[in-house]
Amino acid sequence: MPGGVNSPVRAFRSVGRTPFFVEKAKGAYLYDADGNRYLDYVCSWGPGILGHAVPSVVEAVQKACENGLTFGAPTEKEVELAQLIQSCVPSMEMMRLVNSGTEAVMSAVRAARGFTGREKIIKFTGCYHGHSDGLLVKAGSGLLTGSVPDSAGVPAGYAAATLLAEYNDIESVRRLLEENEGQVACIVVEPVAANMGVVPPEEGFLAVLREAADASGALLIFDEVITGFRLGLGGAQGYYGVTPDLSTFGKIVGGGMPLAAYGGRRDVMSCVAPCGAVYQAGTLSGNPIAVTAGTEMLKLLIAHPEIYAQIDQSAARLEEAYRETGLTVNRVGSLLSPFFTREKVRDYQSVMTSDTAAFARYFGWMLEKGIYVAPSQFEAMFVSAAHSAEMIDMTCDMVKEYGKSGMIL
Ligand SMILES: *Cc1c(COP(=O)(O)O)cnc(C)c1O
Protein backbone atom coordinates (compact mmCIF):
# COMPACT_ATOMS: atom_id res chain seq x y z
CA MET A 1 0.00 0.00 0.00
CA PRO A 2 1.36 3.46 -0.81
CA GLY A 3 2.67 4.82 2.47
CA GLY A 4 1.45 1.64 4.13
CA VAL A 5 -2.04 3.06 4.35
CA ASN A 6 -5.37 3.21 2.56
CA SER A 7 -5.85 6.98 2.95
CA PRO A 8 -2.90 9.41 2.97
CA VAL A 9 -3.27 11.35 6.24
CA ARG A 10 -3.17 8.07 8.15
CA ALA A 11 0.51 7.73 7.26
CA PHE A 12 1.50 10.42 9.83
CA ARG A 13 3.96 11.89 7.30
CA SER A 14 3.26 15.53 8.17
CA VAL A 15 4.00 14.88 11.83
CA GLY A 16 7.11 12.88 10.99
CA ARG A 17 6.06 9.65 12.66
CA THR A 18 4.99 6.16 11.77
CA PRO A 19 1.32 5.42 12.40
CA PHE A 20 0.08 3.11 15.12
CA PHE A 21 -1.99 0.19 13.90
CA VAL A 22 -5.39 -0.10 15.53
CA GLU A 23 -6.51 -3.37 17.01
CA LYS A 24 -9.84 -2.31 18.41
CA ALA A 25 -11.80 0.64 19.74
CA LYS A 26 -14.44 1.11 22.39
CA GLY A 27 -16.16 4.29 23.55
CA ALA A 28 -13.64 7.14 23.52
CA TYR A 29 -10.59 4.89 23.30
CA LEU A 30 -8.50 3.34 20.55
CA TYR A 31 -6.22 0.39 21.31
CA ASP A 32 -3.21 -0.26 19.09
CA ALA A 33 -1.43 -3.48 18.20
CA ASP A 34 1.42 -2.60 20.59
CA GLY A 35 -0.90 -2.55 23.56
CA ASN A 36 -1.24 1.24 23.88
CA ARG A 37 -4.50 3.00 24.63
CA TYR A 38 -5.33 6.42 23.20
CA LEU A 39 -8.09 8.85 24.06
CA ASP A 40 -9.38 9.45 20.54
CA TYR A 41 -10.25 12.91 19.22
CA VAL A 42 -10.32 11.79 15.60
CA CYS A 43 -13.34 9.51 15.93
CA SER A 44 -12.69 8.01 12.50
CA TRP A 45 -12.71 11.58 11.12
CA GLY A 46 -16.25 12.22 12.25
CA PRO A 47 -18.51 9.18 12.25
CA GLY A 48 -17.84 8.36 15.90
CA ILE A 49 -20.06 11.06 17.38
CA LEU A 50 -21.26 8.56 20.02
CA GLY A 51 -17.85 6.93 20.40
CA HIS A 52 -16.65 3.60 19.05
CA ALA A 53 -18.52 0.29 18.93
CA VAL A 54 -21.84 1.71 20.13
CA PRO A 55 -23.59 -1.42 21.48
CA SER A 56 -26.99 -0.99 19.81
CA VAL A 57 -25.37 -0.17 16.44
CA VAL A 58 -23.11 -3.21 16.66
CA GLU A 59 -26.02 -5.44 17.65
CA ALA A 60 -28.23 -4.17 14.84
CA VAL A 61 -25.43 -4.81 12.36
CA GLN A 62 -24.79 -8.32 13.67
CA LYS A 63 -28.46 -9.15 13.35
CA ALA A 64 -28.71 -7.69 9.87
CA CYS A 65 -25.74 -9.76 8.69
CA GLU A 66 -27.67 -12.97 9.22
CA ASN A 67 -30.10 -11.92 6.51
CA GLY A 68 -27.44 -11.42 3.87
CA LEU A 69 -24.74 -8.88 3.20
CA THR A 70 -25.86 -7.44 -0.11
CA PHE A 71 -28.76 -7.91 -2.49
CA GLY A 72 -28.37 -5.33 -5.24
CA ALA A 73 -32.11 -4.85 -4.96
CA PRO A 74 -34.21 -2.33 -3.02
CA THR A 75 -35.06 -2.90 0.64
CA GLU A 76 -37.53 -1.36 3.06
CA LYS A 77 -34.62 -0.37 5.28
CA GLU A 78 -33.31 2.06 2.66
CA VAL A 79 -36.68 3.80 2.66
CA GLU A 80 -36.63 3.98 6.43
CA LEU A 81 -33.17 5.57 6.46
CA ALA A 82 -34.13 8.05 3.74
CA GLN A 83 -37.21 9.01 5.76
CA LEU A 84 -35.12 9.50 8.90
CA ILE A 85 -32.70 11.74 6.99
CA GLN A 86 -35.59 13.70 5.56
CA SER A 87 -37.24 14.10 8.97
CA CYS A 88 -34.03 15.74 10.24
CA VAL A 89 -33.15 17.65 7.06
CA PRO A 90 -36.36 18.75 5.29
CA SER A 91 -34.48 20.10 2.23
CA MET A 92 -33.69 16.47 1.32
CA GLU A 93 -36.91 16.07 -0.66
CA MET A 94 -35.43 13.33 -2.81
CA MET A 95 -32.12 11.54 -2.30
CA ARG A 96 -29.76 8.77 -3.28
CA LEU A 97 -27.67 6.63 -0.97
CA VAL A 98 -24.10 6.02 -2.09
CA ASN A 99 -20.94 4.56 -0.54
CA SER A 100 -18.67 7.50 0.23
CA GLY A 101 -18.63 11.24 0.63
CA THR A 102 -16.53 11.46 -2.52
CA GLU A 103 -19.25 9.75 -4.50
CA ALA A 104 -21.97 11.89 -2.92
CA VAL A 105 -20.36 15.21 -3.88
CA MET A 106 -19.29 13.99 -7.31
CA SER A 107 -22.88 12.90 -7.98
CA ALA A 108 -24.45 16.07 -6.59
CA VAL A 109 -22.25 18.17 -8.86
CA ARG A 110 -23.23 16.01 -11.83
CA ALA A 111 -26.90 16.44 -10.98
CA ALA A 112 -26.40 20.21 -10.75
CA ARG A 113 -24.71 20.23 -14.16
CA GLY A 114 -27.41 18.05 -15.66
CA PHE A 115 -30.20 20.19 -14.23
CA THR A 116 -28.76 23.57 -15.21
CA GLY A 117 -27.15 22.51 -18.48
CA ARG A 118 -24.06 24.46 -17.34
CA GLU A 119 -20.53 23.13 -16.98
CA LYS A 120 -18.55 25.30 -14.57
CA ILE A 121 -18.59 24.99 -10.81
CA ILE A 122 -17.34 27.24 -8.03
CA LYS A 123 -15.50 25.77 -5.07
CA PHE A 124 -13.49 27.37 -2.30
CA THR A 125 -9.75 27.18 -1.71
CA GLY A 126 -9.07 24.82 1.20
CA CYS A 127 -12.47 23.12 1.10
CA TYR A 128 -12.33 19.37 0.54
CA HIS A 129 -15.09 17.53 -1.24
CA GLY A 130 -13.60 14.10 -1.75
CA HIS A 131 -11.12 12.99 -4.38
CA SER A 132 -13.09 13.09 -7.64
CA ASP A 133 -11.19 14.77 -10.47
CA GLY A 134 -12.94 18.10 -10.77
CA LEU A 135 -12.91 18.71 -7.03
CA LEU A 136 -9.21 18.12 -6.44
CA VAL A 137 -8.36 21.72 -7.07
CA LYS A 138 -6.94 23.59 -4.11
CA ALA A 139 -8.65 21.11 -1.86
CA GLY A 140 -8.03 20.67 1.84
CA SER A 141 -7.47 17.67 4.09
CA GLY A 142 -4.66 15.34 3.00
CA LEU A 143 -3.79 17.60 0.09
CA LEU A 144 -2.78 20.36 2.47
CA THR A 145 -1.07 17.91 4.78
CA GLY A 146 1.13 16.59 1.99
CA SER A 147 1.64 20.06 0.49
CA VAL A 148 0.11 18.89 -2.78
CA PRO A 149 -2.04 21.78 -3.98
CA ASP A 150 -3.40 19.79 -6.90
CA SER A 151 -3.26 16.10 -7.64
CA ALA A 152 -1.28 14.68 -10.52
CA GLY A 153 -3.44 12.69 -12.88
CA VAL A 154 -6.24 15.24 -13.09
CA PRO A 155 -6.72 16.39 -16.69
CA ALA A 156 -6.28 20.14 -17.04
CA GLY A 157 -9.66 20.29 -18.72
CA TYR A 158 -11.41 19.05 -15.60
CA ALA A 159 -9.67 21.56 -13.39
CA ALA A 160 -10.49 24.34 -15.86
CA ALA A 161 -14.20 23.89 -15.20
CA THR A 162 -13.60 24.37 -11.48
CA LEU A 163 -13.48 28.03 -10.51
CA LEU A 164 -11.83 28.92 -7.22
CA ALA A 165 -13.26 31.39 -4.75
CA GLU A 166 -11.96 32.34 -1.30
CA TYR A 167 -13.83 31.18 1.79
CA ASN A 168 -15.54 34.03 3.67
CA ASP A 169 -14.94 36.34 0.71
CA ILE A 170 -18.23 36.93 -1.02
CA GLU A 171 -16.66 39.38 -3.49
CA SER A 172 -14.52 36.57 -4.88
CA VAL A 173 -17.72 34.63 -5.58
CA ARG A 174 -19.53 37.58 -7.16
CA ARG A 175 -16.57 38.25 -9.43
CA LEU A 176 -16.51 34.65 -10.70
CA LEU A 177 -20.27 34.63 -11.26
CA GLU A 178 -20.02 37.86 -13.24
CA GLU A 179 -17.06 36.74 -15.34
CA ASN A 180 -18.81 33.44 -16.09
CA GLU A 181 -22.35 34.64 -16.44
CA GLY A 182 -24.80 31.89 -17.34
CA GLN A 183 -22.09 29.22 -17.12
CA VAL A 184 -21.92 28.28 -13.44
CA ALA A 185 -23.90 25.14 -12.54
CA CYS A 186 -23.30 25.25 -8.82
CA ILE A 187 -21.45 26.70 -5.88
CA VAL A 188 -20.23 23.87 -3.67
CA VAL A 189 -19.14 24.71 -0.15
CA GLU A 190 -18.44 23.21 3.23
CA PRO A 191 -20.87 25.31 5.29
CA VAL A 192 -18.29 25.10 8.07
CA ALA A 193 -14.90 24.55 6.48
CA ALA A 194 -13.36 21.67 8.41
CA ASN A 195 -10.71 20.30 6.07
CA MET A 196 -8.19 23.12 6.50
CA GLY A 197 -8.70 22.99 10.23
CA VAL A 198 -12.01 24.44 11.36
CA VAL A 199 -12.89 27.75 9.71
CA PRO A 200 -16.38 28.96 10.55
CA PRO A 201 -18.46 30.90 8.03
CA GLU A 202 -18.54 34.56 9.00
CA GLU A 203 -21.85 36.23 9.83
CA GLY A 204 -24.02 36.28 6.73
CA PHE A 205 -21.55 34.48 4.44
CA LEU A 206 -23.82 31.49 3.77
CA ALA A 207 -26.93 33.66 3.37
CA VAL A 208 -25.18 35.87 0.82
CA LEU A 209 -23.97 32.77 -1.04
CA ARG A 210 -27.60 31.69 -1.22
CA GLU A 211 -28.56 35.06 -2.73
CA ALA A 212 -25.67 35.07 -5.16
CA ALA A 213 -26.53 31.57 -6.34
CA ASP A 214 -30.18 32.51 -6.86
CA ALA A 215 -29.32 35.68 -8.74
CA SER A 216 -27.06 33.78 -11.14
CA GLY A 217 -29.17 30.66 -11.63
CA ALA A 218 -26.50 28.46 -10.04
CA LEU A 219 -27.44 25.82 -7.50
CA LEU A 220 -26.05 25.97 -3.98
CA ILE A 221 -24.61 22.69 -2.69
CA PHE A 222 -23.77 22.29 0.98
CA ASP A 223 -21.24 19.56 1.52
CA GLU A 224 -22.40 18.41 4.94
CA VAL A 225 -20.29 15.27 4.99
CA ILE A 226 -18.72 16.48 8.25
CA THR A 227 -21.34 18.92 9.55
CA GLY A 228 -24.37 16.71 8.88
CA PHE A 229 -25.79 15.27 12.14
CA ARG A 230 -22.84 16.86 13.97
CA LEU A 231 -23.87 20.47 14.41
CA GLY A 232 -27.31 19.17 15.31
CA LEU A 233 -29.83 16.87 13.68
CA GLY A 234 -30.44 19.49 11.01
CA GLY A 235 -26.76 19.83 10.09
CA ALA A 236 -25.20 23.19 9.21
CA GLN A 237 -28.30 24.19 7.26
CA GLY A 238 -30.36 23.88 10.43
CA TYR A 239 -27.65 25.52 12.52
CA TYR A 240 -27.30 28.59 10.30
CA GLY A 241 -30.81 28.68 8.85
CA VAL A 242 -29.69 28.71 5.22
CA THR A 243 -31.20 26.13 2.88
CA PRO A 244 -29.14 24.77 -0.02
CA ASP A 245 -30.58 23.27 -3.22
CA LEU A 246 -28.58 20.07 -2.78
CA SER A 247 -26.73 18.57 0.18
CA THR A 248 -24.30 15.76 0.72
CA PHE A 249 -23.95 13.65 3.85
CA GLY A 250 -21.41 11.05 4.87
CA LYS A 251 -19.42 10.07 7.93
CA ILE A 252 -22.03 10.11 10.76
CA VAL A 253 -24.93 9.14 8.48
CA GLY A 254 -23.30 5.73 7.90
CA GLY A 255 -22.90 4.99 11.60
CA GLY A 256 -19.32 3.84 10.94
CA MET A 257 -20.03 1.95 7.72
CA PRO A 258 -19.33 3.09 4.13
CA LEU A 259 -22.49 5.02 3.39
CA ALA A 260 -23.24 8.54 2.22
CA ALA A 261 -26.16 10.40 0.68
CA TYR A 262 -26.85 13.23 -1.70
CA GLY A 263 -30.11 14.89 -2.43
CA GLY A 264 -32.26 17.96 -2.16
CA ARG A 265 -34.77 19.68 -4.43
CA ARG A 266 -37.17 17.24 -6.03
CA ASP A 267 -36.99 18.94 -9.43
CA VAL A 268 -33.19 18.67 -9.46
CA MET A 269 -33.04 15.09 -8.16
CA SER A 270 -35.68 14.08 -10.71
CA CYS A 271 -32.91 14.49 -13.28
CA VAL A 272 -31.15 11.41 -11.89
CA ALA A 273 -31.57 8.07 -13.68
CA PRO A 274 -33.94 6.31 -14.12
CA CYS A 275 -36.15 9.42 -13.78
CA GLY A 276 -33.84 11.61 -15.82
CA ALA A 277 -30.72 11.73 -17.93
CA VAL A 278 -28.07 12.14 -15.21
CA TYR A 279 -26.51 8.72 -14.74
CA GLN A 280 -25.44 7.56 -11.30
CA ALA A 281 -25.44 4.01 -9.96
CA GLY A 282 -23.76 1.66 -7.48
CA THR A 283 -23.56 -2.10 -6.97
CA LEU A 284 -23.34 -1.70 -3.21
CA SER A 285 -25.38 1.52 -2.91
CA GLY A 286 -27.87 1.28 -0.08
CA ASN A 287 -26.03 -1.78 1.23
CA PRO A 288 -28.28 -3.36 3.88
CA ILE A 289 -25.57 -3.59 6.54
CA ALA A 290 -24.42 0.01 6.06
CA VAL A 291 -28.03 1.17 6.00
CA THR A 292 -28.69 -0.68 9.25
CA ALA A 293 -25.75 1.02 10.96
CA GLY A 294 -26.81 4.44 9.68
CA THR A 295 -30.42 3.93 10.68
CA GLU A 296 -29.51 2.84 14.20
CA MET A 297 -27.12 5.81 14.53
CA LEU A 298 -29.75 8.33 13.44
CA LYS A 299 -32.36 6.75 15.72
CA LEU A 300 -29.99 7.14 18.66
CA LEU A 301 -29.28 10.77 17.82
CA ILE A 302 -32.97 11.53 17.37
CA ALA A 303 -33.75 9.85 20.70
CA HIS A 304 -30.92 11.71 22.47
CA PRO A 305 -30.77 15.24 21.10
CA GLU A 306 -29.25 16.29 24.45
CA ILE A 307 -25.91 14.90 23.34
CA TYR A 308 -25.48 17.97 21.11
CA ALA A 309 -25.42 20.27 24.13
CA GLN A 310 -23.07 17.86 25.88
CA ILE A 311 -20.49 17.68 23.08
CA ASP A 312 -20.77 21.42 22.51
CA GLN A 313 -19.93 22.01 26.18
CA SER A 314 -17.06 19.53 26.11
CA ALA A 315 -15.62 21.22 23.05
CA ALA A 316 -16.08 24.66 24.64
CA ARG A 317 -13.95 23.53 27.59
CA LEU A 318 -11.24 22.28 25.26
CA GLU A 319 -11.42 25.55 23.34
CA GLU A 320 -10.82 27.46 26.56
CA ALA A 321 -7.83 25.31 27.47
CA TYR A 322 -6.24 25.84 24.05
CA ARG A 323 -6.94 29.56 24.22
CA GLU A 324 -5.05 29.75 27.52
CA THR A 325 -1.95 28.49 25.73
CA GLY A 326 -1.98 31.50 23.42
CA LEU A 327 -2.94 29.56 20.30
CA THR A 328 -5.68 30.69 17.93
CA VAL A 329 -8.71 28.42 18.32
CA ASN A 330 -11.71 28.07 16.05
CA ARG A 331 -14.77 26.13 17.14
CA VAL A 332 -18.26 25.41 15.89
CA GLY A 333 -20.19 23.02 18.12
CA SER A 334 -18.14 19.86 18.67
CA LEU A 335 -15.65 20.68 15.88
CA LEU A 336 -12.56 22.61 16.86
CA SER A 337 -9.02 23.38 15.79
CA PRO A 338 -6.15 24.94 17.67
CA PHE A 339 -4.03 26.70 15.05
CA PHE A 340 -0.32 27.13 15.69
CA THR A 341 -0.41 30.80 14.83
CA ARG A 342 -1.32 33.98 16.65
CA GLU A 343 -3.24 35.33 13.68
CA LYS A 344 -6.99 35.23 13.37
CA VAL A 345 -7.86 32.30 11.09
CA ARG A 346 -10.72 33.03 8.69
CA ASP A 347 -9.64 31.64 5.31
CA TYR A 348 -7.05 29.53 3.52
CA GLN A 349 -4.44 32.27 3.59
CA SER A 350 -4.61 32.75 7.35
CA VAL A 351 -4.71 28.97 7.91
CA MET A 352 -1.38 28.84 6.07
CA THR A 353 0.28 31.07 8.67
CA SER A 354 0.26 28.03 11.00
CA ASP A 355 3.59 26.62 12.12
CA THR A 356 3.25 22.98 11.09
CA ALA A 357 6.54 21.99 12.73
CA ALA A 358 5.19 23.30 16.03
CA PHE A 359 2.01 21.35 15.38
CA ALA A 360 4.02 18.17 14.81
CA ARG A 361 5.81 18.63 18.18
CA TYR A 362 2.46 19.11 19.91
CA PHE A 363 0.99 16.07 18.17
CA GLY A 364 3.85 13.83 19.31
CA TRP A 365 3.72 15.17 22.86
CA MET A 366 -0.02 14.53 23.13
CA LEU A 367 0.29 11.06 21.62
CA GLU A 368 2.91 10.13 24.17
CA LYS A 369 0.47 11.23 26.87
CA GLY A 370 -2.11 8.88 25.35
CA ILE A 371 -4.18 11.51 23.54
CA TYR A 372 -4.74 11.08 19.81
CA VAL A 373 -5.60 14.22 17.86
CA ALA A 374 -5.64 14.31 14.06
CA PRO A 375 -2.08 13.98 12.73
CA SER A 376 -2.33 17.23 10.80
CA GLN A 377 -2.82 20.94 11.47
CA PHE A 378 -5.39 20.92 8.70
CA GLU A 379 -7.93 18.53 10.20
CA ALA A 380 -10.58 19.12 12.83
CA MET A 381 -10.64 17.77 16.35
CA PHE A 382 -13.82 15.76 16.86
CA VAL A 383 -15.49 15.56 20.26
CA SER A 384 -17.88 12.69 20.93
CA ALA A 385 -20.53 11.92 23.52
CA ALA A 386 -18.25 9.14 24.77
CA HIS A 387 -15.77 11.77 26.01
CA SER A 388 -16.71 12.00 29.70
CA ALA A 389 -16.25 15.14 31.80
CA GLU A 390 -13.22 13.46 33.41
CA MET A 391 -11.66 12.72 30.03
CA ILE A 392 -12.20 16.31 28.95
CA ASP A 393 -10.69 17.52 32.26
CA MET A 394 -7.65 15.34 31.73
CA THR A 395 -7.24 16.59 28.16
CA CYS A 396 -7.57 20.24 29.24
CA ASP A 397 -4.89 19.65 31.89
CA MET A 398 -2.56 18.17 29.29
CA VAL A 399 -3.18 21.04 26.89
CA LYS A 400 -2.41 23.57 29.61
CA GLU A 401 0.69 21.65 30.63
CA TYR A 402 1.84 21.67 27.01
CA GLY A 403 1.12 25.39 26.90
CA LYS A 404 3.53 25.92 29.80
CA SER A 405 6.22 23.75 28.22
CA GLY A 406 7.50 26.66 26.15
CA MET A 407 7.17 24.59 22.96
CA ILE A 408 3.99 26.19 21.72
CA LEU A 409 5.36 28.42 18.96
C1 LIG B 1 -14.63 13.39 4.30
C2 LIG B 1 -15.21 14.39 3.39
C3 LIG B 1 -15.56 14.08 2.07
C4 LIG B 1 -15.21 12.77 1.43
O1 LIG B 1 -15.84 11.70 2.04
P1 LIG B 1 -15.19 10.22 1.85
O2 LIG B 1 -16.21 9.34 2.49
O3 LIG B 1 -13.88 10.27 2.54
O4 LIG B 1 -15.07 9.99 0.39
C5 LIG B 1 -16.24 15.01 1.33
N1 LIG B 1 -16.54 16.22 1.84
C6 LIG B 1 -16.20 16.57 3.09
C7 LIG B 1 -16.60 17.90 3.61
C8 LIG B 1 -15.50 15.67 3.91
O5 LIG B 1 -15.13 16.04 5.12
UniProtKB/TrEMBL annotation:
Q: EC number(s) in its UniProt entry? A: 5.4.3.8
Q: Which InterPro entries match?
A: 4pyrrol_synth_GluAld_NH2Trfase (IPR004639), Aminotrans_3 (IPR005814), Aminotrans_3_PPA_site (IPR049704), PyrdxlP-dep_Trfase (IPR015424), PyrdxlP-dep_Trfase_major (IPR015421), PyrdxlP-dep_Trfase_small (IPR015422)
Q: Pfam families recorded for this chain?
A: Aminotran_3
Q: Which SUPFAM superfamilies match?
A: PLP-dependent transferases
Query: What is the annotated signal peptide range for this record?
Result: none
Q: Which reaction does it catalyse?
A: (S)-4-amino-5-oxopentanoate = 5-aminolevulinate
UniProt protein name:
Glutamate-1-semialdehyde 2,1-aminomutase
User: What organism does the record attribute this protein to?
Assistant: Eisenbergiella tayi
Give the encoding gene's name: hemL
